[in-house]
Records
---
Amino acid sequence: MSQDSSAVPGQVTLAQAVAALAEVPAGGRPWAELISRGTLRVGLYAPRGTDPQQPHDQDEVYVVMSGRGTFRNGPESHPFQPGDVLFVPAGVRHAFEEFSDDLYVWVVFYGPPGGEAAG
């Protein structure tokens, strides 16, 4: 459900995002991109069992919609729960660990490769 910059939706509901994620082929990456404009990409991520992701070349923000567990962000690890917002700078190794089977997180990627300048 990726959108070009001329057709960016003004709203995507969680139900629409879950439906888009259900269309991902079995064994595919548990990610559905729903909004894309310039450097901005927004999607829903829902790993099951383990989190296979690698560091990304953009800064990213997660908004936890459901699920609980531990989030590893570089050398640090912290518990998370619904409503939490998690930030990961570009290039930093991170992963959801020991998480529940109902984990759904909005993911927002933005900025240039290598991330925004620290400010």
Note: The mean pLDDT is 91.
---
Amino acid sequence: MSIARVGKILVLEDSLNDLEFVSNYFRDRGYNIIKANSAKEALEIVLEEKPDAIITDVVMPGMSGFELCRFLNRNSTHQKVPIVICSSKNQTIHHLWARKQGADAYITEPYTPELLLSVIQSVAA
């Protein structure tokens, strides 16, 4: 998978440390990173920037990653954007619920940046 296929990634995380870590990892590999700290901010960015993929946490203030995923998948303009949910929640029900909301992948913490990159590449293929 080439970088051209997934060039712009929206990273949505309310933890500044996690946001910077993931963003820097992808930026160092040639990806254009757009950062957001809330789902509301992410929705505005999706409309303006049209990212090639979205990485989101589940637990955030205002709107969860699940709710964001559901909203984006109901909006036909953004149905094709692959969404990867990253979370510390590791019960089967969380994985199933993420898929039901339209997520393309669900990975649990702790995860390596290499795994996240691999998942992004596989869902965007």
Note: The chain has one domain: 8-123.
